[in-house]
Amino acid sequence: MPNLDEVKGKIDQAAGTVKEHVGRATGDGDLEARGAAQKTGGEVREGFGEAKRKVGEVVKDIGDNIKKS
Questions:
Q1: 9-52 tens-digit pLDDT
Q2: Which residue of 31, 34, 49, 68 has the smallest Cβ count within 10 Å?
């Protein structure tokens, strides 16, 4: 199940993509650049969220294995 960082990362990616396309369509280079930066930031945040979730899953698995012993 995705965590909050993964979800917010996806939202930032989507919003950034929209801004990037609107900026490109209207000739607003600043908006296009801000959109690209937001999209990249969203990708980073999503990746951080994935890593955090995977570490949590490993810790849970270790705890489960210790309980079984």
A1: 999 999 999 999 999 999 999 999 999 999 999 999 999 999 99
A2: 68
Q: Is the dihedral of CA 43, 46, 50, 51 positive or negative?
A: positive
Domain boundaries, the chain: 4-68
Residues 6+ apart with CB under 8 A from 33: 23
Cβ neighbours of residue 25 under 8 Å, at least 6 residues apart?
Answer: none
Please state the three-class secondary structure of 29-53 as a single string: HHHHHHHHHHHHHHHHHHHHHHHHH
